Amino acid sequence: MSFHEKAEALYAETFDELHREYDQLIEVIDSEHVTVNTANITAALSLQAIVISLTILSAQLAIEDEDTADIVSEHLLAVHRLQSRRRVIIKVIGSRNVTITLSSLEILLSVQVLTEVLIALITELDIL
User: Fold this and answer.
1) Mean pLDDT, range 107-115, rounded to an integer
2) Which of 119, 5, 115 is nearest to 50 (CA)?
3) Stated pTM of the model
């Protein structure tokens, strides 16, 4: 498997896992004209998956021993899994003209921390 294929597969797997871990239950009962916007969440999860994938791939490139690189990658994923579970429950009952926009602030904070780790890693590797 080429590096490009490995990167695409890692991204897809990471995004799917993040999307599954982000539970959203929006229940609308006896309501009219309810709009739900989750586009920000999907974009934020995609960005998070990209940064996680880049961090893991950078670590794998930096560590020559493949077994050690795999262990470090698994640890990075394990730490992230502990932090990524989110649950959103919203009930709209007997309402009219409601707009719900889910925020991605927690995800963006995670991306910021992951980006700082990635920058430190590639700086240490003398890539930057």
Assistant:
1) 82
2) 115
3) 0.70
